[in-house]
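User: Could you check the structure of this?
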Amino acid sequence: MPLRVLAVTGSLRARSSNTEILRAAAIVAPDEFAVELYDSLAELPHFNPDLDHMGSVLPDPVVKLRGSVAGVDVLLVSSPEYAHGVPGSLKNALDWLVSGPEMIDKPVALLNGSGRSVHAPAALAEILRTMSARVIPLDKPVVPLGGRRLEAADIAGDPELRRVIVDALEALRTSARSGTSPWGASSSMPPSA
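Assistant: Sure, the predicted structure tokens are below.
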């Protein structure tokens, strides 16, 4: 059975580099992976706790989001950084997942296309850890696009860029198989953090 990967972009842009990175992941993924791109970020309503309580009827896009996350083994997220932070649309999606069990102990790897993005990845990792997801440390979390606007096929065809993505997928597979954080069963952070 393939490892089911939900690829989540933090950008709503039609030609987002982060989305292209995830499309490239679907191209370069070994046969034992099934990569699905979550493409409904823009359809989610603004998070409202009044709509998210026991017995409430959730909006259809929220039901779809939760079902998509629950139906996979791991998540691969690629997100830009806006004003030193996580894009609002991605944070909104995560807010809709806070009260459910979908993210608990779910392995998540974070990629981005720019080495200048340092604040958003750190904030995103903190949000995910707070949600009880297992943030998987990557040796190389940056797919070094160098400001180039590459399409998925170009990213997949570049050996250096391809290696970063495949390494992230392999780290997710290792984490999913082990069932625990690389830092021990009770933590998703290194002991020194």
